[in-house]
Each structure stands twice: as C-alpha cells, then as structure tokens.
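Re: the 131-residue chain
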Amino acid sequence: MMKRENSNRTRIVGLRFTPEEYAQIERKFRASTCRKLSDHIRRHLFNKPIVTTYRNQSLDDFIEETITLTNELNSIGNNINQIAKKVNTLKQIPEFKEQLLRFEFEKKILFNKMDEVRNHTQKISESWLQL
C-alpha cells in the first residue's frame, strides 16, 4: 500500500487574512492548477513551482476573427437563399437574368470569404505548431 503524501503532516498553522488579502490569495489559487488551497499555499511557501492557467491571445484573436467571418458567411448564405427563393417564383425572363447575375456575384463573395477563413486558419495553425 502506498503511503499518503501528507500522512506525516500533524502540525496546523492558523492564519488570519483581511478580506482583500484572502481575495488575492483565492484569485491566485483559482488561476493555478492546484486542487486545494492548502496545496497552493504550501507550494508558494516552499518555493515549489505553481502551474497557472493563462489565456492564449492568438487563440482569442483567432476565435474573434472566425466569429466575424462566420457572421459574414451567414449573411451571404441568407442572400443566396433569398435569390434561390426568388428564382423559383419568377415568371418573367428579364428578372430571371438579373437574379442569376446577382447569384453569381454573391457566389464569388462567398468563395472569397471561404478562402479567407481557410487562409486565416492555416496561418494560426502554422503559428501554433512553431515552438
């Protein structure tokens, strides 16, 4: 049977903190990967490494750009759906030709945006793979 790491921890130290001090300690604890506050404090006291979580700015930028591009693609998709609905209800040839031209225009915009998303994703993945 494996001996527990803290089985010989028999001494208790009581500390009192101001609300501000405790909030600061708790903030640092929540940003770490420690499961218990006592483990976090013990690591800090004995200068052991504390692993903290962090925000990946490049990932945040990627997500923001992807959301923008996705919204633009949704708008283009809505335009294409409206064109298709209109084409299905057309009875006059001149209006049909106009809708086909509009469709081709929106299709080009859509494909350009899809290329933009593909290129942006490629750039981000290449930067993540670099060490």
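The CA atoms of residues 31 and 55 lie 11 Å apart.
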